[in-house]
Prior knowledge:
The complex is a heterodimer of chains A (222) and B (286). By secondary structure, chain A is α/β, with parallel strands linked by helices.
Amino acid sequence: MIQVESLCVQYGAAIALDGVSLHVSAGEKVALIGANGAGKSTLLNALSGIVAKKSGTIRIDGRWAHVPEGRQLFSELSVEDNLRLGAFCASDRNPAWIYELLPELAPRRRQRAGSLSGGQQQMVAIGRGLMARPDVLAIDEMSLGLAPLVVQRLAAQLLRLNSERGLALLLVEQSARLALSLCDRAYVFETGRVVAQGAAAELRDSPFVERAYLGGPLEEAS
Amino acid sequence: MSAFLSYLVHGISVGCGFALIASGIIIVYRVTRVVNLAQGMFSVVAGFAASSLLGLGLPHGLAELVAIATAAAVGLATGCVATAKPGTSPQASLIATLGVGVFAYAVEILTWGDQPRSFSGLSGAYEFLGTDVPKQYLLVTLVTLVVFGALEVFFERTYAGKVLSACASNPYAARLQGIRVVRMGLYGFALGGALGGVAGVLLTPVQPVSYDSDVSLFVNGFAAAILAGLKRPVLGLLGGVVLGIAESMVAGYAKASYQSSLALLLTLAILVTQAARREALHAVEE
């Protein structure tokens, strides 16, 4: 579904991605984990065509939607307008099914998106992404700044879409624990490279990942 | 009383022209975050073009429409120069629009000369409470109301209007939805050009235009636009009419040369208070 081969991206002299290869198959749940500035968001922006690649290849079969970090809503516009704008490239702009999926948004459809709580804004952002009827949905830092309960509810809905409609998920998370518990596979990013990859269960048990991203002994010592 | 009424009527119609220019400034700003300093020039071009076309024998109505279309094309061209290069910052674009405005002086002088031009609009007047209300003033007001009604429907009710608003609200997110933000900005410039053109063809019979009329048109339009907080065109209508009436009163009861100072003073006052408010906001955030 998504096939990336030796992708390099540069911002001026700074190398943001340095020979990244990865793939996401149809219906798969894949996590990208790593510290801030490791290149995860750059990869999503490259897949969205927002940043130009220097070399390498990107192939996306099917529709792709990208829920950016920080939600990036059209905050002056209503919830409904935000959702409908998500369907800019799709043929069906009726958001009724999003309100069924995320019922909290239904009574707020006329409200300004910027006036919602953080969790509700994240719902609008995800809803807007889903309005493009994607085959793959990428979500950048879904859990950032949200209460654990809200994250759990959103995650449950995403897993439902994954199992019922075969929606592939690409989750970018600093919270490695969450990402590894939701996904089948994961890639670990460090300074623009993939330094580890494999099944989520294996990575969870690997001492390297545990030390660097799950708050192992090293972090406790410092 | 009758002097007051005639100042009021004049103020409203001139204010409608300011409002049309303000709406052009607001729309370009909303879609691109660029303050278009060439906005007044669109009106001048349309006024000149209409006077030439009428001189060539085109009938009223058609001549004005062609002039408005010309202004829209000039708006589009201005947008291309100012924003089409990917990654141009709004500040750089602003300077580019200034450059386009100055360049336009040369073209206008070469094409139409340096003398003020005008053409006759609707002739005749209605009598209202002992005051003559020229039909052209009514036409200006009526057309302005229709244009603002259409703008309100376009931005609040149509998908295309929402798409343009989205570009201004969050260009990055707009691009993620597959919206071509630069192209939408060019549509914004073309629309701004057309609105400036409407103002030009309506105002030229009331006040002759010369190549450098764009400065006073822009200053008044900009004052009306920031009175509206550069947000909704409809608020620009209110700002423009208030400003037009105020200036007409100043010109009538005090001195005509004071009226453009009024717009400048008002602009300054609004900018200073807004800046102070923003400073206060930053202080609270910190």
